[in-house]
Specification:
The chain has 594 residues and is of the alpha+beta class. Helix content is 59%, strand content 10%. Helix 11 packs parallel to helix 18, helix 15 packs antiparallel against helix 16 and helix 18 runs antiparallel to helix 19.
Amino acid sequence: MIAPMTKYSFILLNGMQDSLMDTLQETGLMDITRSLKPVDDHSREIVAKIELVDGLIKGLEKATVPEGTEPEFIDGDIERLAGGMLMRYSDDAVAMDNIRKQIQQLKVWGHFDPVILEKLKEAGVPIHFHSLPTKQFKAIKASDYPLFVISRGKSTVWFIVAGEDTLPGEIPLPTRNTDQLKKELKDREKHYSHVLRRIASAKERIPELLEKKAQYYSELDKYLAGCTAIPAAEDTLVTLVGYAPTEKDEEVSAKLDQTGFLYIKEEAKVEDNPPISLSNNWFVKQFELFTDMYGRPGYDGFDPTPFISIFFMLFFALCMGDAGYGLVLILVGLALKKVESFKGISPLVVILGIATVVVGFFLHTFFSMDIATWKVFEPIQGIFLPNEIAGYAGGMVLSIAVGVVHLCLAMTVKAIQSVRVHGVAASLGTLGWTLLIVGGVIVGAFALAGVLSSELTKLIIIVIGVVSALGIFVFNDPKRNKLANVGIGLWNTYNTATGILGDVLSYLRLYALGLAGSMLGMAFNDMGLMVLGDGSNAILWIPFVILILIGHTLNIAMAALGAFVHPLRLNFLEFFKNSGYEATGRTYNPLKKQ
């Protein structure tokens, strides 16, 4: 649900903003509207510092230090020292790579002395180094030139020419031989080893850089919040507006009263556009990330997360449709607890896994095997979904039924929300449609169950039809002309009739995805059994297990992708459209220490 917010209006002397921001940061509950981007040179400077520290952290994390390297502690400002060390680390790595390449290139020339080459050049007998493809070298008449072949490769010939030279393929004269390069490489490696010991020490101080980054973020957040102050009384005073959850009023007021700042506290109104804080239990809170993907509701809207939590979980389980796959998801969710970056979604994965186990058992499928045929489950056959219902596939009927319930709930929510915001008189059109569709579905369900007789059903349907028609065609807008209302009602009837049918059919994807995953899993099972044969050959169990593991792993991955996307679509499109949900709110983002 949407948590009620309290509006705090501050009036203070110009220049006291920093003191107020410090207090609000310590409280960690006040949302001050602020820019998401740098607004001036000072904020841009802080952003540059954040980016620099972030770059240093990433650079140190990527730097490879061999195991067993003894860290050489370095004292001083880690931010300044890390930058210098990373530069030397990069310079040495590049230089050593270049030297190794030069050594590799010079190997074909053997040992030579650059000093002697220079003396020969001064004496008028310069030595030219060449490299040519074998085919091109053969076209040269060697006896016409003072050349000497140094080395031959599979497709290349390396040779030298003395004196005047007009042959192709000349390469720059080497200034150093391999011995000199090896000595330089050894010196570089020695310096690089020293740098690595310092890098190892700097890696141990990454927490200090993370703390600096957090400090810069807090500084930027506080500064941007202070920039929203509005000057008043010829810049003598400034005013600020912030919001905090109403349930935290006592805590916030007690902290502000200690500071002596003048503030006015009042209940936040819709026109104030307060930030939206969602207050849900642990289970529903796991699904708030889906609400945030679409956008938070307005202050006078409704929180869709409780509905998403139930139906996304159910839709996901129907799309997976396999109790065995659910067990795998539970294990994956528990494993994610150990991974820091995925720790937050671990409970959600476990919840979805449990739901998949329950629904998969109801659909009597375990790793694409039909457990309804297992003798152990014969006493509880009645709880399994029938393969056929009224001549149609059981899974298809179930998907349509779940879709109808989902849409009816959406329309009910829309009617309740419309009455709450606009009043009964302005909501008669919405109430009419809700009564017609939701009421008709309920009456039809009772009639099919045999609870209502055919005569009573007919009477109720007539009453619902008449009352609904009045709301849809006559009183859909009390301020409008009645004839205009009839015209608008007819147009809405066309749109609703065509739209609701398409919306209901959209839920067939739940059946289709579950069926596709099951069929593909069965195909892998059959392939594995074909490889295994009668099981008498023990060696064949190895390819059987490998094939089953790979096949079902691929199937789980593909099924999970579809089971994530399509339930999200059914909630974001079908439910949100029919419930009138609008994501017009902004997320509650309190000013606090990072």
